[in-house]
Amino acid sequence: MVTTEQELTSSTRGRMMVLVALLLAAVNLRLAVTSIGPVLTEIREGLGMSSTVAGILTSVPAICFASFGLISPRLARSFGAPRVILAGLATLTIGLAVRPYVPGTALFLLLSVVALAGIAVVNVLLPMVVKEHFPTQVGTVTGFYTVALNVGATVAAATTVPLTASFGDDWRLGLACWALVAVLAIPAWLPLSRPAHTPNPEVNGADFVRMSRHPVAWALAIYFGMQSTSAYVIIGWLPQIYRDAGISAEQAGLLFATTSFLGVPLGLGLSWLAGRMRSQSMIALILGLFGIAGYGGLWWDPAAAPWLWAILLGVVNTAFPLVLTMIGLRGSNPARVVRLSAFAQGVGYLVAIPGPILIGALHDGTDGWRAPLGLMVLLMLPQIAAGMAAGRDRQV
């Protein structure tokens, strides 16, 4: 007898299977990105990559998440969300396994796009899966899967350098081994991807236009974009900022891992708290103030109090689980959540594209980090404003 998705998710056991599948998928949502930063110097040397091109590399995730994320709901309508997520994980596996071994910067960027396209579809569809199967526990379940996301990000950040060293300083093998983690997530989605499935909401042009008329959607999109800009600057450049200040590659990787690791307990607690509050505006304000302090500290002197700056930036990084929770809360049903998720993430990642590129260009132009970090301090202001607007107790 074939077990359908509906049958699997109608019982406690089925809900646990969905939760496990969510967590395994989420672990992979930042591996392709956070494994790059600790060995960026080696990648640049191996591929002959300039700082500006490295800035483009750090913007590739935002480009992919914007473009592929917008088509994810349409794919889910045609094939079912579990199948699309399964295909996304398979695509991620291929990209992670192959990209370190291609010759030249162009092909490395292309295979990064392949890996990140897989992540993009999963990014958009997971909030819908949460709303559909855990409608009364949106904050808690979102917290669980953002914890899994941060665990994956932290492990990749902390261990890519030691793994590379253990492989004879072969950064290519150090990056490729993360494909194994993506492989492990695939079996959990196979039972949910069997033939029968409930059609999922489709996002089309009219849906997108209607969503664009709602101020809550724009507030979420801008907040998503600003926190993504901050996140990808941290992911792409924080280890390099520390290394340029005279800190060793190993310690820079640990500092970066600390920033990521803080998202584990803080993300879970923040999502739980946000899900129980009528308004999340004050949380957005507090996170933005931590960001100003963290980037301001790096601007002053990265080596003066590196662990303090890492902790402050780890706190501001929890804007990501906050915005995911707000997307789930602002949408009144699963159909609207997936449309709101597609709009907020699609537009938000478009907003985030220029940030890491500009940071790299400013670094090249000024031969230092003060101008880029000063810009990041200023960008916390629109992030705070958008977050406070998105956090108001309204629904789409």
Task: Please provide a written account of the structure.
With 396 residues, this protein is mainly α. The protein has one domain (5-390): MFS general substrate transporter like domains (Growth Hormone, Chain: A, Up-down Bundle). It is 79% helix and 0% strand. The longest helix is centred in the middle third of the chain and has 30 residues, at 215-244. The relative contact order is 0.17.
Keyword list:
single chain; 396 residues; mainly alpha; Growth Hormone, Chain: A; 20 helices; 79% helix; globular
Provide mean pLDDT, rounded.
Answer: 84
User: Which blocks of ≥5 consecutive residues have pLDDT under 50?
Assistant: none
Query: How would you name the CATH homologous superfamily?
Result: MFS general substrate transporter like domains
Q: What proportion of the residues form beta strands (DSSP E)? A: under 5%
Overall body shape: globular
How many separate domains? 1
| CATH class category name | Mainly Alpha
Radius of gyration: 20 Å
CATH architecture: Up-down Bundle
CATH fold-level label:
Growth Hormone, Chain: A
Fold blueprint:
Layout: H1 5-8, H2 12-27, H3 31-34, H4 40-47, H5 51-79, H6 81-98, H7 105-133, H8 138-166, H9 171-176, H10 179-189, H11 205-212, H12 215-244, H13 249-261, H14 263-275, H15 281-300, H16 306-316, H17 319-330, H18 334-352, H19 354-366, H20 370-390
Helix pairs in contact: 2-7, 2-8, 2-10, 5-6, 5-7, 5-12, 5-18, 5-19, 6-7, 6-10, 7-17, 7-18, 8-13, 8-14, 8-17, 12-13, 12-17, 12-18, 12-19, 12-20, 13-16, 14-17, 15-16, 15-20, 17-18, 19-20
